[in-house]
């Protein structure tokens, strides 16, 4: 695992070296317009758009479905006893810690890879302003997760307490969502960006499943954790980063006759 993570880190650092000295399409530096002084109307709109994202509401729906016929407990028991992906509970624990760390490292690297112009005082100022938005999203995710843990105090499958929701998964969710958003501002082939985004989604899911196999959480715990992290990652970037992407890119679900469809919109 460590060699794979090291290789991935080197690749992304190389990307940062190439693209970190460019600017946004409008000539601005990534992060220079970031601010928390945006008004409650913008925050509310950002929260509403985040709630409509499938990566926010779908995990919540999945957690609800897991309560049918005790699926939550049964899947947890099967994963805990069989360890079908990670081989053992100890290995699953180690993987969950490593994947969580990889998510955090990926976000940090993505901040440096975003186009903020040539280095100097303005470069550092832009990075700091943009990075503070990410730190705000991570801190809010952590506070929400810990608050729910204390309030619910659900017993973990391994007998310990504070199972709901999963902190590993909520952190991976918010970090990976922030990273995916940063990728939208970095010049690269669309296929490369799609592959990296899918990889980030997989990283979040793998972190959660590792926690289930380790006996630390039920599936619903990790699904809710994923939803929390994704929500605050999307909401904070749309409300406070102000990089112009939130006004051009939207992903939402809308009902149609006989079902529904996921709509991706990009305005120029």
Describe the protein's architecture and organization:
The structure is a single chain. The protein is mainly α and 268 residues long. The chain has one domain (44-266). 66% of the residues lie in helices and 6% in strands. The chain has helices at residues 2-19, 40-52, 54-65, 71-82, 89-113, 121-152, 167-183, 190-213, 219-241; strands at 249-256, 259-266. Strands 1-2 form a two-stranded antiparallel ribbon. The radius of gyration is 19 Å and the shape is elongated. Mean pLDDT is 87; it is low at 247-253 and 262-268.
Summarize the structure.
The protein is mainly α.
State the end-to-end CA separation. Answer: 41 Å
Count the helices. How many?
A: 9
- Uncertain residue segments: 247-253, 262-268
Number of strands: 2
Structural class label:
mainly alpha
Element-level helix/strand string: HHHHHHHHHEE
- Write out the strand line-up for the largest beta sheet, numbering strands in chain order: 1-2
Structural shape: elongated
**Tally of individual domains:** 1
Amount of beta strand = 5-15%
- What is the rounded Rg? 19 Å
- Helix proportion of residues, in percent? 55-70%
Could you report the average pLDDT, rounded to the nearest whole number? Answer: 87
- Which sheet architecture does the biggest sheet show? 2 strands, antiparallel
